[in-house]
Backbone:
């Protein structure tokens, strides 16, 4: 039996975009509803682009061919439909070198969580994660499924340069930096895999709905 969906809040973003968002917990069920909403809105005339986020979906449209009120009505109608639970995508294994120069914050994460370093690595590698959305920079996958014992606040002082491939924890999320960039997540490891290649098709290794497992490389 399908449970009623949470309220969908819709607000304008300028004259040619809408943000459809839901308050509450960040869950796979909510994210699957966001994906379902996007799939439905993609078929509506006048819609130009759809960008899923965490518990939200940004919709851009052509104001010469449709109106915000019409699209908001369509979004609410689609949101009220039973959740279909879109099947998850590929499973992708990510090899990781934990700690040392590759994971300079691993010891700090362990201390914050009251765990030893080996237990942090064990918990980080035993979970199966789901890509909720791609954001922040090309190929940066926000992953759901982090063990609650590993939730750790972001660094008080962000780094000016985080190496590409770094695995980080920021609050209740874990993710992989595909490109060198400033960043404030706690760095616990690094992978040699390329997460973003503009010459490839598709250019990103991961996509929303993919399942991810981290595999610790021997030290």
Residues:
């Amino acid at each position: 039996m399908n449970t009623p969906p949470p309220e969908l809040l819709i607000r304008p973003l300028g004259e040619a975009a809408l943000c459809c968002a839901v308050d509450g917990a960040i869950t796979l069920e909510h994210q699957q509803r966001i994906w379902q909403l996007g799939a439905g809105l993609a078929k509506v005339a006048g819609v130009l682009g759809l960008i899923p986020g965490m518990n939200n979906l940004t919709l851009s449209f052509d104001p010469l061919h449709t109106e915000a009120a019409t699209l908001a009505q369509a979004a609410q109608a689609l949101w009220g439909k039973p959740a279909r639970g879109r099947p998850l995508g590929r499973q992708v294994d990510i090899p990781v070198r934990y700690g040392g120069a590759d994971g300079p914050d691993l010891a700090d994460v362990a201390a914050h969580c009251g765990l030893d370093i080996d237990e942090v690595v064990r918990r980080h590698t035993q979970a199966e994660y789901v890509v909720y959305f791609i954001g922040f920079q090309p190929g940066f996958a926000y992953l759901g499924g982090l063990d609650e014992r590993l939730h750790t606040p972001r660094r008080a002082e962000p780094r000016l340069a985080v190496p590409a491939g770094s695995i980080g924890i920021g609050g209740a999320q874990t993710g992989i930096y595909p490109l060198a960039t400033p960043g404030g997540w706690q760095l616990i490891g690094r992978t040699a895999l390329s997460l973003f290649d503009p010459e490839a098709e598709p250019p990103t290794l991961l996509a929303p709905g993919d399942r991810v497992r981290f595999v610790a490389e021997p030290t």
The first strand starts at residue 9 and ends at 12. The longest helix spans residues 28-41. The mean pLDDT is 91.
